[in-house]
């Protein structure tokens, strides 16, 4: 009698353990970025993307690229985009400007600015915003290389994004890449604007040179695009074979990096 | 013993009982007092400090009754007045309440006198001129009558005049001709008399904002940890939420009063964008708010009472979720903004509010999201004007080379880096707002004035030469300039060529 009850309990426990073992440790419904008919990424909710650019003076380009993607994520259930920037960096990087958002085709009423005093509060606010089910995208503008924004922090945010369905964009500057759990990493550079038909000396539509450094978009093998911003969204400019996509100039490194020797032993010895 | 400087001399400002028994008096010259009592210990009085301490002290007494006021017309730092309507039963009646309040102050070494009466005037008279007691409403006249007329809160001249006329007791006044009294002593005497007997209404001005609804908890053993405080705040929020729900109300502001055993009150306030009564939300806001306190939180010797009060109470009807509610996410967003604002401060969570002006840096005002105001329909930006995506809050001066003084820029030096432009479009001319004057008109140059002394700046603003509107002086020509790597900047030249004495270039924004 007692042995039968014990057997039952043992079986139940075994089943529980098997259940735990079958489930991966950090299960997430990973969103996979899909490409559209033109071969460029479609707006995908629940992704963490890093948007890198070499220099801080390209701040306009990264913000434009991220906002352009975030615009596609706005919907009736998710009517807001949250932009985070440290208070001290406003004068150096510039603040998102309402009439400029209108020029880009983004509704300024949908953008809320959060201006924390330090990076820890910024990450906290980013996590709160990502967890909110009415936020379409979170744009975090981080000019420096803060220690707090490490792999653990980005992993945490990406899990949060995967479970809530909000997207996160980290706007980063410089050539240094630290480990991060972001699904996609873009390298953005401003490109010469398109021609304006009636004034050759004026700037035309905005163009970006975008390269996918990390991650992959399904259905496309392309890694590099020249994008133009139009009323309907991104348009890929075919540079043609005449001018092969020239590799982006190697940027200056923002901190000393030891040279990689062929034989690593002398370095460590 | 305290002294202060009065009319060029040092005079006694406050004395204790021991000094009074030595025949010293307030207002006496300090030198005279020293001559009378050689071993005198004196300190200079610090009135603002004492006033602040007394105010704190008064706030702390709101643990006995929510309506606390300080009447400062008669004594140096005021008299503490509590409206105990409906709270005496919490102390087991009026007499035990008076005893509790007085004993706990006496135990701390204060000399206290107090009275409970049906009018403020009567309570003041009894506490200052009789022993501490509770005066029942029907005996007010009987207790007041034998007291000196000075107990009516009269000024010294009025009291002296009445005494000279033989009217020494309050009881002698009501029978007199009111018109004659008013003619001699002014209307204030009659007013004080009526207030003491309860014939005229007297109001007190509460020190703390009057909480419309509140819940409180007292502790036998004082608590100190922030976690305990927050846990208690959650419990109180549940109580308060139930009460608000019963009445169909919600509130937008919540205050947590922490009463410390050493007679200090700490206050934490949180605001909510829309009326709420959700305990979990309120508790979360306080938890976030406490993170911002960091080192400022000091429980002292412990907290023995916590009160959660709600203000800005408005109607909030019960809502059936799911069936008829549009899922537009607005409520979720408001809660998010409440939470973030409670930790980072309301000024850190902002939205762009458009202002009806064509000066770019003034066209957008950052407004706290939880205190949003209605949009101005005339202020919406013109979509045909191309504007930068990022704007520098303060335009930065740059060096620009142009082929002709009023032509588009060829190259510039900004932040010590030079740029060569391949494309430039413009100008878009924005003139100053001629209906403004002075610094408001000048916009950029005003920074230099602020650094210099304000006196000259103020004089300049007043004098004739202050920058009144002059055509072209501060007009701006905006250009969109693109350099060879595709960076697009928004630059402007301040001052029109031929009008302004000096042409300055500034960088104001970046295009995508």
TrEMBL record, chain A:
Biased composition (Low complexity): 241-254
Protein name per UniProt: Protein ImuA
Native source species: Devosia limi DSM 17137
Chain spans, region Disordered: 240-269
Annotated InterPro entries: P-loop_NTPase
TrEMBL record, chain B:
Residue ranges of every copy of the DNA polymerase Y-family little finger domain listed in the record: 215-317
Keyword rRNA processing appears in the UniProt entry: no
InterPro entries, A to Z: DNA/RNA_pol_sf, DNA_pol_Y-fam_little_finger, SulA_CellDiv_inhibitor
Keyword terms: DNA damage
Repeat listed as a keyword: no
GO biological process, one term: DNA repair
MF terms (GO), sorted A to Z: damaged DNA binding
Protein name per UniProt: Protein ImuB
């Amino acid at each position: 009698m007692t042995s039968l009850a014990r057997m039952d309990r043992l079986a139940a426990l075994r089943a529980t353990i098997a259940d735990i073992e079958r489930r991966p440790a950090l299960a997430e419904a990973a969103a996979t970025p899909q490409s559209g008919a033109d071969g460029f990424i479609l707006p995908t909710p629940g992704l963490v993307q890093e948007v890198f650019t070499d220099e801080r003076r390209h701040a306009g380009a990264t913000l434009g690229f991220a906002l352009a993607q975030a615009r596609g994520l706005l919907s009736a259930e998710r009517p807001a985009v949250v932009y985070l920037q440290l208070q001290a960096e406003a004068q150096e990087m510039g603040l998102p400007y309402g009439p400029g958002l209108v020029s880009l085709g983004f509704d300024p009423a949908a953008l809320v600015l959060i201006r924390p005093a330090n990076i820890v509060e910024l990450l906290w606010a980013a996590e709160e915003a990502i967890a909110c089910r009415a936020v379409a995208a979170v744009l975090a503008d981080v000019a420096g290389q803060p220690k707090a924004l490490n792999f653990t922090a980005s992993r945490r945010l990406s899990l949060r994004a995967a479970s809530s369905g909000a997207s996160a964009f980290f706007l980063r500057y410089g050539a240094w890449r630290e480990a991060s759990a972001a699904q996609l990493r873009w390298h953005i550079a401003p490109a010469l604007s398109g021609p304006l038909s009636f004034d050759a000396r004026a700037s035309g539509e905005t163009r970006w040179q975008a390269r996918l450094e990390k991650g992959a978009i399904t259905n496309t093998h392309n890694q590099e695009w020249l994008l133009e911003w139009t009323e309907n969204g991104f348009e890929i400019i075919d540079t043609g074979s005449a001018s092969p996509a020239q590799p982006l100039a190697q940027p200056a490194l923002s901190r000393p990096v030891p040279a990689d020797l062929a034989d690593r032993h002398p370095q460590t010895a | 013993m305290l002294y202060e400087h009065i009319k060029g001399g040092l005079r006694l400002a406050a004395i204790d009982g021991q000094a009074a028994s030595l025949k010293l008096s307030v207002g006496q010259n300090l030198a005279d007092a020293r001559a009378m009592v050689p071993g005198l210990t004196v300190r200079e009085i610090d009135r603002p400090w004492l006033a602040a301490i007394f105010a704190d002290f008064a706030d702390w007494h709101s643990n006995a009754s929510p309506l606390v006021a300080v009447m400062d017309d008669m004594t140096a730092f005021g008299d503490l007045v509590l409206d105990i309507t409906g709270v005496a039963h919490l102390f087991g009646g009026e007499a035990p309440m008076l005893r509790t309040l007085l004993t706990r102050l006496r135990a701390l070494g204060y000399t206290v006198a107090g009275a409970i009466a049906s009018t403020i005037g009567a309570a003041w008279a009894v506490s200052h001129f009789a022993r501490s007691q509770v005066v029942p409403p029907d005996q007010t006249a009987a207790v007041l009558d034998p007291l000196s007329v000075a107990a009516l809160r009269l000024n010294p001249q009025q009291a002296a005049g009445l005494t000279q006329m033989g009217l020494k007791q309050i009881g002698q006044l009501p029978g007199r001709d009111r018109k004659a009294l008013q003619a001699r002593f002014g209307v204030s005497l009659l007013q004080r008399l009526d207030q003491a007997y309860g014939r005229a209404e007297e109001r007190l001005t509460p020190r703390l904002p009057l909480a419309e609804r509140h819940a409180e908890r007292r502790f036998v053993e004082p608590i100190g940890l922030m976690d305990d405080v927050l846990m208690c705040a959650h419990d109180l929020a549940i109580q308060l939420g139930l009460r608000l729900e019963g009445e169909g109300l919600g509130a937008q502001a919540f205050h947590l009063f922490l009463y410390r055993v050493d007679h200090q009150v700490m206050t934490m306030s949180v605001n909510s964008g829309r009326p709420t009564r959700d305990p979990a939300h309120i508790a979360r806001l306080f938890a976030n708010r406490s993170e911002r306190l960091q080192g400022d939180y000091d429980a002292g010797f412990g907290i023995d009472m916590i009160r959660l009060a709600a203000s800005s109470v408005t109607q909030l009807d019960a809502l059936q979720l799911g069936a008829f509610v549009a899922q537009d996410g607005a409520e979720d967003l408001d809660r998010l903004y409440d939470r973030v604002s409670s930790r980072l401060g309301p000024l850190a969570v902002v939205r762009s509010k458009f202002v009806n002006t064509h000066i770019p840096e003034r066209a957008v005002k950052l407004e706290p999201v939880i205190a949003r105001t209605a949009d101005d329909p005339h202020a919406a930006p013109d979509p045909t004007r191309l504007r930068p995506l990022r704007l520098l809050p303060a335009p930065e001066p740059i060096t620009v080379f142009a082929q002709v003084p009023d032509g588009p820029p060829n190259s510039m030096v900004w932040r010590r880096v030079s740029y060569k432009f391949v494309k430039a479009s413009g100008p878009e001319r924005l003139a100053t707002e001629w209906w403004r004057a002075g610094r408001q008109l000048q916009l950029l140059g005003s920074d230099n004035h602020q650094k210099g002394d304000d006196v000259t700046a103020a004089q300049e603003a007043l004098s004739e030469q202050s920058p009144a509107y002059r055509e072209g002086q501060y007009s701006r020509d905006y250009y969109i300039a693109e350099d060879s790597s595709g960076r697009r900047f928004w630059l402007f030249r301040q001052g029109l060529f031929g009008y302004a004495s000096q042409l300055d270039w500034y960088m104001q924004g970046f295009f995508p």
